[in-house]
Amino acid sequence: MVDQKPDNIYASPLDRVADFAFDDAVARVFPDMIQRSVPGYTTIIPMIGLITERYAKPNTQCYDLGCSLGASTLAMRHGLKKAQCTLIAIDNSEAMIKRCEHYIELDNGVAPVELRCCDMREVAIENASVVTLNFTLQFIRQGDRPAMLKNIANGLHSGGALILSEKVYFEPTEEQQTLEALHYDFKRANGYSDLEISQKRSALEQVLIPETIEEHKQRLLDSGFSSVTVWYQCFNFVSFLAIK
Ligand SMILES: C[S@@+](CC[C@H](N)C(=O)[O-])C[C@H]1O[C@@H](n2cnc3c(N)ncnc32)[C@H](O)[C@@H]1O
Ligand SMILES: O=C(O)C(=O)C[C@]1(C(=O)O)C=C[C@@H](O)C=C1
């Protein structure tokens, strides 16, 4: 079931563009979709492994929240070479979890992986040393984000790490326009047509709500993290390292 199908979900004109959802059609093409859509994704994934290796502590739990097909989960697992940890990977899309299970089975990592199909907002984070939110927080209601981050900070041991990757928004407008245009150039260079770009944009409009780097940093500090660093940025895609 390891499918590497090309993403052509938005290639033909649609009468009505429905809100984007992580359904079966998306899960089937997801590796291709995310690599061609998120500048830096292929760099961020192995670095999640490296960051995990540094911050994971023996006899703790590591979480991957919104794991999709498990790319970030497997990177974390390979970073857990020495530390004796349990990895808990969560996604609320059945289509994703079903496929993720298969990818985990094919992997030769040693750390045990517990896969859960549920809403990450309902999971109590406990005894944690590393938590990853790789392009997931952006999909939950803005009003739910502070509680989610507080739950993570409360569940992390002192010195523990949160890796938070997000599409971000910029003020002033000029900076936003430049970085957004470069993001669309990236998509075009990866073979997406203007129609695909514009239909996907409409599909994501009410679903993926980006915030500014400053908003993210302040909320992480307000949630109980002691430091926040932008360790990666490519255009309007950013990854933060927040330390408890
Ligand atoms: C962009 S994908 C994440 C990509 C993945 N972390 C990776 O590195 O390949 C976002 C994922 O978050 C999941 N998601 C969205 N809201 C969620 C929620 N409330 N609880 C759990 N998972 C959620 C979606 O089903 C989707 O699989
Ligand atoms: O902003 C876009 O156009 C995107 O495609 C981004 C993004 C993401 O950041 O998660 C949105 C949905 C898909 O999961 C893949 C990538």
TrEMBL record:
<keyword id="KW-0949">S-adenosyl-L-methionine</keyword>
<dbReference type="InterPro" id="IPR005271">
    <property type="entry name" value="CmoA"/>
</dbReference>
<comment type="subunit">
    <text>Homodimer.</text>
</comment>
<dbReference type="InterPro" id="IPR029063">
    <property type="entry name" value="SAM-dependent_MTases_sf"/>
</dbReference>
<feature type="domain" description="Methyltransferase">
    <location>
        <begin position="64"/>
        <end position="160"/>
    </location>
</feature>
<dbReference type="Pfam" id="PF13649">
    <property type="entry name" value="Methyltransf_25"/>
</dbReference>
<feature type="binding site">
    <location>
        <begin position="91"/>
        <end position="92"/>
    </location>
    <ligand>
        <name>S-adenosyl-L-methionine</name>
    </ligand>
</feature>
<comment type="similarity">
    <text>Belongs to the class I-like SAM-binding methyltransferase superfamily. Cx-SAM synthase family.</text>
</comment>
<comment type="function">
    <text>Catalyzes the conversion of S-adenosyl-L-methionine (SAM) to carboxy-S-adenosyl-L-methionine (Cx-SAM).</text>
</comment>
<keyword id="KW-0808">Transferase</keyword>
<dbReference type="GO" id="GO:0016740">
    <property type="term" value="F:transferase activity"/>
</dbReference>
<feature type="binding site">
    <location>
        <position position="134"/>
    </location>
    <ligand>
        <name>S-adenosyl-L-methionine</name>
    </ligand>
</feature>
<protein>
    <recommendedName>
        <fullName>Carboxy-S-adenosyl-L-methionine synthase</fullName>
        <ecNumber>2.1.3.-</ecNumber>
    </recommendedName>
</protein>
<feature type="binding site">
    <location>
        <begin position="66"/>
        <end position="68"/>
    </location>
    <ligand>
        <name>S-adenosyl-L-methionine</name>
    </ligand>
</feature>
<feature type="binding site">
    <location>
        <position position="41"/>
    </location>
    <ligand>
        <name>S-adenosyl-L-methionine</name>
    </ligand>
</feature>
<feature type="binding site">
    <location>
        <position position="201"/>
    </location>
    <ligand>
        <name>S-adenosyl-L-methionine</name>
    </ligand>
</feature>
<dbReference type="InterPro" id="IPR041698">
    <property type="entry name" value="Methyltransf_25"/>
</dbReference>
